[in-house]
Amino acid sequence: MIAALSVFIAKWRRERGLPRAQLQYLGIGMMILSAGAVTVNLLIPIVTGRSTLSWLGPYFTLPFVALVGHAIIRHRLMDLRIFVSRGLAYALAMATASAMLITGARLISPAWEAETFFVHPNLVIVIIVALAILSSPAQQFFGRVIDPYLYRGTGYSTALRGATRRLSRLMQPVELASELRQILVEVLVPESFTMLVKSFESESFEQLSAEAPPDVDPRILAQLHAGQPNTMVIVVNPDAESGAAKPIHQAMRVAGVEIAVTLGRRGQLLGVVLLGPRRSGDAYFKNDLVFIESLADLASIALENALLYRQRIQMLEYSDRLLESLDSAVVAIDIGGKITSFNPAATKLLGLSDEYLGALMHVLPSEIGWALVLALSGGWHPREVEVTIDHATRGILHVILSTAVLHDDENRISGALVVVTDLSAVKALERNQRRVEHLAIMASFYAGIAHEIRNPLTAISNFIAMLPDRFDDPEYRDTAVRILPMEVARIVRLADRLRLMAPSEGGKLSVVSIPPLLHDIAAIHSPTAQEQHVKIELQCPEELPKIQGDPGQLVQLFVNLLRNAVEAMPDGGTVTIEADHAPGKAGSDSIIVRVIDDGCGIDPTVRAKIFDPFFTTKPSGTGLGLSICREIADFHRARLSLFPRSMFDGGTIAEVEFPSLPPEPSPL
Fold first, then answer.
1. Which H helix or E strand runs over 205?
2. CB contact burial 220-244 (16+ within 10 A = b; e otherwise)
3. What is the model's pLDDT at position 89?
4. 8 A C-beta contact, residue 656 and residue 633
5. 3-state SS track over 213-271
6. Which of 30, 81, 483, 631 lies in the 20 to 30 Å Cα band around 501?
7. Between vectors from CA 189 to CA 183 and to CA 194, what angle results, nearest 5°?
8. Each residue's pLDDT tens digit, 516-548
9. Distant-in-sequence, close-in-space partners of 234: CB < 8 Å, separation ≥ 6
10. Whole-number Å distance between alpha carbons of 501 and 480
11. Is residue 160 within 8 Å of 294, Cβ to Cβ?
């Protein structure tokens, strides 16, 4: 006895999981049986000297039998599979309840059987118990408690209504597999459940259930599904099959599969559900198969929606990751102008944070806000437009701006988004490139200056070298008096022109008003122009928005353009200087200054080269005037362009477009 108990305890300590649970129920039953028998047959007689309760000893076998039966039914003790029909379950329940009531009655009143009744008291108890078990409350109790305990599941109609409700919501395929498994376990209680899903993009199958899949290739099941309806319930029965289907059924039977359900929509296989035998030992009857088929139709629709939902989630996650990886700022607004989303680059470039979600777009820079408003209204859809925004810490930034309109499922406008790309690095590279080009230009410039100055210096040097020998020669003196002043004047003119055309160094931006500047230039240069029969007309309003600029460089810019216009009219004419305030091409207000002449115009064949350094069409020109003008315009973030005034009458328009400052608030 002790050896057997030691072996039992050692095995219980060594086992884990289901075997340990089986041994626990067996051990508890043995302990109750032993403790009860020893107590009523040994301990109580020793203590009291009477054995009046010894008749209870055999009844302690009932808990032992109940626990062993529970272990067999629920935990497959000794791998036994007990088939319990509903009638047998009622009989066992009636016998158990009657035995418990009769035992209780005898304990409470030992002489109760001696009382006179028309029938035996035990039979009365059995009849009462039978009527109670057959009553409606007891039937409901059986349906709720006893049937699930015996692995018989719940009613089909109730389960199908619950399945319709549970499978009608949007969910991921993994959640669908969990819901479907729970429904089948509640109704049919299969020993195993495996769900495999076929993705839209490939022919491979993905297992969604946590259980180990049976050794069945799902592609074989796909062959069975070919040419069949959307859903199909296959009862595994190798003996009833022939041809190519027979080895498939044999493989599923070996793998422990009793039912194979194919889930499909619109002729396309979406997934496979494999069910093992029922834990109750029952076969899958006709009503069971009808329920599985109805559930499969619901599951097919739910699986298609789940796969589409997962695909949409994956696309949204991909879009989110793409937005997070973009260096450009992306901001989306709804139809009401409220910010709905933005990416991390927008936080860095535009200073947005989570607290701005749901805020109106007036928190964005004005250029971006107006672009979104115009996009929503359909008035303007900018694509890669370069604008400047005022950054809180970095100052004025050059950015490229593009907008797009968002539509809902009914193609109605639901919002807009803007993509803003920081051009700071590009502008820095451009500045470095211009610096390198400037150095190259200066090298070429110095070589040209050396060549221009060398010619008059050579002539002067030759005259000086002949001075000792021909000092008294009248012809030499006459030639020297005529040539030397001309060569010196040539050097002076070259120096004056270079000084006039060279840009100021270290230009500093300040607030500048254009009208006074143009009035001064016109007043100073009108007398000189009139000597060449050229009239200067100024058309400029007294009040214009101010700009940021360097006054010295602006004077050089306009003087160079004015000088070019005057030189383009050797026979005289009129130079018109216009200034106006107009909406700029970048979406912000601008100040436009035009210098218009009546000359011969620019030859179309050389128009692309007019801003190149040292390119000139004038016999005595240096080719640096327009190049320096372009450099000054770039320094002021202005746009300089030259185009013909008229295709027939000739003439040229030199146009400079400056970004204007916002108007100053009027004093209260």
1. strand 205-207
2. bbbebbeeeebbbbbebebeeeeee
3. 65
4. yes
5. CCCCCHHHHHHHHCCCCCCEEEECCHHHCCCCHHHHHHHHHHCCCCEEEEEEECCEEEE
6. 483
7. 70
8. 999 988 888 888 888 888 999 999 998 888 898
9. 221, 224, 259, 260, 261, 262
10. 31
11. yes
Please give the structure tokens belonging to residue 144.
Answer: 């709720």
What is d(CA 575, CA 107) in angstroms, rounded to the nearest whole number?
131
Distances (CA, A) of 151 to 27, 60, 90: 24, 27, 15
Cα→Cα distances 393→121, 328, 351, 389, Å = 99, 18, 10, 12
Beta strands in 451-606 (DSSP E): 510-512, 534-539, 547-549, 573-583, 589-596
| pLDDT for residue 537 | 92
Q: Which residues, in sequence order, are CB contacts of 497 under 8 Å at separation 6+? A: 622
3-state secondary structure 124-179: HHHHHHHHHHHCHHHHHHHHHHHHHHCCCCCCHHHHHHHHHHHHCCCCCHHHHHHH
Cα(467)–Cα(480) distance, integer angstroms: 9
Q: How far apart are CA 420 and CA 408, in angstroms?
A: 23
DSSP assignment of 390-454: EETTTEEEEEEEEEEEEE-TTS-EEEEEEEEEE-HHHHHHHHHHHHHHHHHHHHHHHHHHHHHHH
Q: Is-contact 393 384, C-beta < 8 A?
A: no
pLDDT in tens, 113-160: 555 556 677 777 778 877 777 776 766 666 666 665 555 555 677 788
* Alpha-carbon separation of residue 73 from 15, 26, 70, 79 (angstroms): 20, 13, 5, 10
DSSP E strands: which ranges in 569-635? 573-583, 589-596
Question: Alpha-carbon distance 82 to 372, whole Å?
Answer: 73
Cβ neighbours, 10 Å, residue 251: 17
Q: Average pLDDT over the chain, rounded to whole? A: 78
pLDDT for the residue 93: 74
CB 528 within 8 A of CB 567: no
Can you tell me the mean pLDDT for 169-182? 89
Order of strands, sheet of 193-198, starting from the edge strand that comes earlier in the sequence: 205-207, 193-198, 268-275, 259-265, 232-235
Nearest to 520 by CA among 569, 572, 562: 562
Q: Round to whole Å and give the CA distance between 577 and 524.
A: 14
Angle, alpha carbons 512-518-519 (nearest 5°): 115
Among positive and negative, which fits the CA dihedral 118, 121, 123, 125? positive
List pLDDT tens digits, range 288-338: 888 999 999 999 889 888 888 888 887 777 776 776 677 888 888 888 888
Predicted pLDDT at 668: 45
Span 180-184, average pLDDT? 90
Six-digit token pair at 403? Answer: 């907008």
Residue 125 has φ and ψ, to the nearest 5°, of -60, -40
Distance CA(385)–CA(127), nearest Å, equals 94
Distance separating alpha carbons of residues 631 and 616, to the nearest angstrom: 17
**What is the token pair recorded at 331?**
């901001």
Pairing of strands 573-583, 534-539: parallel
Partnered with residue 233 across adjacent β-strands are: 261
Pair of tokens at residue 592: 């436009």
Torsion of CA 14, 20, 22, 23, to 10 degrees: 40
Tell me if 529 sits within 8 A of 535, measured CB to CB.
Answer: yes
Strands 639-644 and 573-583: unpaired
The per-residue pLDDT for 455 is 75
Q: Are 627 and 611 in contact (CB under 8 A)?
A: yes
Q: For 315-364, what is the HEC assignment?
A: HHHHHHHHHHHCCCEEEEEECCCEEEEECHHHHHHHCCCHHHCCCEHHHC
Considering only CA atoms, which of 654, 634, 633, 658 is closest in space to residue 643? 654
